[in-house]
Every structure is written in structure tokens, then in C-alpha cells.
Specification:
Layout (H helix, E strand, L loop, with lengths): L5 H10 L5 E5 L6 H11 L4 E5 L9 H17 L4 E6 L7 H14 L4 E7 L2 H11 L4 E5 L5 H8 L3 H7 L12 H22 L7 H13 L3 E2 L2 H7 L6 H13 L3 E4 L6 H5 L4 E4 L3 H4 L6 H4 L3 H23 L2 E7 L2 E9 L2 E8 L7 H10 L3 E6 L5 H6 L8
Parallel strand pairs: 1-4, 1-5, 2-3, 3-4, 11-12
Antiparallel strand pairs: 6-8, 7-8, 9-10, 10-11
Helix pairs in contact: 1-2, 3-4, 4-5
């Protein structure tokens, strides 16, 4: 069975002496539970696996019950150490306070229980970690599958990855696009909105949240002002509502709104967002044309191609902790600006020879980025870009 890079990270940390709670976080259907099960199968340490998926949110005592059960097993079976895994931990109210209490109790009594937590809602996980578990945990971030992973595991071509994105559970369905679309809509979009957002956050207009996502996904890789979005949505409310919904969709790994790059924070936050899905399947599921037509339609393919590059960049930014922007000034534009520790990288996506790239040179003159390059026609080959270590761009 194919093993993602996180397999080795998780294995190494569980084989270490008990030091920190290990937290595996990432969006739905990217293989968090699968890779953890692979690790547990291959290491010689007893474990207990629990899932909070169907536990009432108010039942925080359930976490203590899991802990009590594993302590009893450890004592009765005379295990030197044991691993406690809790999946979808963020669904339980006040989960971090209970985990802190139980972890500290084990630490005080020298009880060697290693803890691995999994979750799919970034905002709820990170809130709990920062509030109650500071200094007690390490993050292991997982995101959508890359082209290299989809190619090596499922034999995807570059065009297939650009159109269908990187969801492993849907890989076998790409030859039946109706089934593929049904899977993406039910297992990814509806499950994320219903279980990761609506169950945990008070939303006054759930239908508007769905419409916001659908419109944003359809326009992924493009600029769309919030006022124009309001004109396209029913019962839309105001731009503050839309901004809040886009932030919720971002924290759930579905859709984000990239800000315009600017040295001035106020100007950046007031900019028109560039909407961007985290996985191109979330865009093409709403496409009016299928894969075979898309690859022959130059204009449509250009939009799909640019959205895919953006999806890859925002997914990588979640794992490797860098920021992604776009830049536009009058007639000059650069598709994606990356920033980490003050280092800037400018990237222009060029799907055909007609697209102008003067914006890249203008950005060089104004901001002196560490590097500025084109992906696609006349620049770095797309496949080469997808297989490079993006972290090295900053060094």
C-alpha cells in the first residue's frame, strides 16, 4: 500500500520517548486515518483507537472514559507503553481542557501513554491547542495529494491531475465522471460543510454558506469582488457575512480568498479576494464541461490550469507555513506571490503563448523578490514544478 511522507514522520515520533501529544491535522479525505493505521500496523507498540465522529459534542467525559480504559488495559496487560489515538477530537466541546488534565495526570504519575490526536477542522483544533495545550503538543500537517503522489499511486497523467485534483478516494472514479462528481459532493463538500462547519459554528444562513462555496469554487483562480458575489447570491446579506463564510471555508480546507500583496496591511485586507480552492476537484465538479471537452477548450483549460497551480500552492502553504497572495497594479499583474520570513517569490502561470507577463518584471523592480519565474509556456515545465521541493525556493 502506498505510504505518504507523513508515514515516516508519525512513525519516528511514536517510537521516541513520550514527550509531546502528536496532532495530525488536515482536511477530510486526504488519508489521515489511513496513514495512522499503516503506522500502527508496522510498529510493535500496543494501541487503542477511538473515534469521536458519532459522540455527542457535549460529552467531554467520553475522552476521560477512553483514557481510563487504556490505563486499565496498560496495567492489566503489563504494557511498558501504549498509544492512545482519538480521531475527530475537535468535535467534543472543551476537548483540549480534558486532554490537558489527562495528559498532565499521566505525566505526574509517570504513566507512559503516548497520545495521537486527529482532526479535520483546523480552526477548532488550533484554538484548543493554543488555549490549553501550549508546550504539550507537536503538529503533523497533512494536505491534499500532490501530482507526484497521484501519479505514483494511481497512475494519473498530468492532465488528469490538473482536472480531477488529488483526492485518493475518488481516483478510481475518474472514468465515470458522474460518480466522481457525486463522491466529491457527498463525501467531501457536504460532509465538510455539515460536520465540520455547521455542527460546530452557529450559521444564520446555511444555504448562503453553500452558495458562497459553489460560486467561489466556480471562480477559483479568478478575482471576484464581494459586491459582485452579493449580486450573484440569493439573500446574501452583506460583505462581512461573506468574508466570515470564506474564512470558515478556508479553515475547513475547501476554499480561501487570497489577498492582494501589499506592504500596507490595511490595503491588503481591503483588496478584492482571489478565490482559490484547495483541490481542483472542488472547482471542476461544478464545471459545465467534462474532462475530454476541457482539454480541447483552450480558454476553459487555461482557467482550470491556473486554479490547479493555485490549489497546489495553498495546500503546500498549509503544510510548510508560508503565505500566498496575488499582485495587481493598474495593467500589471502577477498570479501568485509567496512569502515566508520576509522572502518573496513571484510566480506567473502561463497556459498559452498569448498571456502577457510584463507584471513579473514590474514586480521585480518594485519589490526585489528572491526569485520570479513563469510556470508553463516559456517557463518551468509544469511537471518539473509539481515535483520540486517548494521549501527550497525560500533558501
Amino acid at each position: 500500500m502506498y505510504k505518504r511522507a507523513e508515514y515516516k514522520i508519525i512513525t519516528n515520533r511514536l517510537l521516541e520517548e513520550r514527550k509531546f501529544i502528536q496532532v495530525v491535522m488536515g482536511p477530510r479525505q486526504v488519508g489521515k486515518s489511513t496513514v495512522v493505521k499503516q503506522v500502527l500496523k508496522d510498529i510493535n507498540i500496543p494501541y487503542q483507537f477511538y473515534s469521536a465522529d458519532n459522540v455527542p459534542a457535549t460529552n467531554s467525559a467520553w475522552i476521560s472514559d477512553c483514557w481510563a480504559a487504556i490505563r486499565s488495559l496498560k496495567k492489566n496487560k503489563n504494557w511498558d507503553d501504549v498509544i492512545l489515538i482519538i480521531d475527530e477530537i475537535q468535535k467534543i466541546a472543551n476537548w483540549s481542557e480534558v486532554v490537558k488534565k489527562e495528559w498532565d495526570n499521566d505525566t505526574f504519575h509517570d504513566c507512559n501513554i503516548k497520545v495521537l490526536l486527529l482532526g479535520s477542522s483546523r480552526v477548532l483544533l488550533e484554538k484548543g491547542l493554543s488555549e490549553s495545550l501550549a508546550g504539550r503538543f507537536e503538529e503533523i500537517r497533512m494536505s491534499h495529494w500532490s501530482y507526484q503522489e497521484m501519479r505514483d499511486c494511481f497512475g494519473f497523467t498530468l492532465d488528469q491531475y490538473i482536472f480531477f485534483g488529488g483526492y485518493p478516494g475518488a481516483a478510481s472514479l475518474i472514468n465515470d465522471e458522474e460518480r466522481f462528481n457525486q463522491y466529491i459532493q457527498s463525501a467531501i463538500i457536504e460532509a465538510t460543510i455539515n460536520k465540520d462547519i455547521l455542527m460546530d459554528t452557529p450559521i444564520s444562513k446555511p444555504a448562503l454558506l453553500r452558495q458562497t462555496f459553489e460560486l467561489g469554487a466556480a471562480y477559483s483562480g479568478e478575482l471576484l469582488s464581494l459586491n459582485k458575489m452579493l449580486g450573484s447570491l440569493q439573500d446574501a446579506g452583506n460583505t462581512v457575512t461573506l468574508t466570515g463564510y470564506i474564512n470558515l471555508l478556508k479553515e475547513s480546507g475547501l476554499l480561501c480568498g487570497l489577498q492582494k500583496f501589499s506592504i500596507d496591511n490595511a490595503r491588503r485586507k481591503a483588496s478584492i479576494p482571489k478565490l482559490q480552492v484547495y483541490n481542483n476537484a472542488l472547482k471542476t465538479v461544478y464545471s459545465p464541461i467534462n474532462f475530454e471537452r476541457a482539454i480541447t477548450d483552450r480558454k476553459s483549460w487555461g482557467r482550470i490550469y491556473e486554479s490547479n497551480i493555485g490549489a497546489y500552492l495553498v495546500s503546500q502553504s498549509f503544510i510548510h507555513h508560508f503565505e500566498v497572495f496575488y499582485w495587481r497594479e493598474r495593467d500589471f499583474e502577477v498570479d501568485y506571490i509567496l512569502r515566508k520570513n520576509g522572502v518573496l517569490i513571484a510566480i506567473e502561470v502561463k497556459s498559452n503563448a498569448e498571456k502577457r507577463t510584463e507584471g513579473l518584471e514590474k514586480f521585480r523592480q518594485l519589490f526585489n523578490p528572491k526569485s520570479a519565474f513563469i510556470i508553463g509556456d516559456g517557463g518551468i515545465n509544469t511537471e518539473d514544478f509539481f515535483t520540486m521541493d517548494i521549501r527550497k525556493l525560500f533558501f
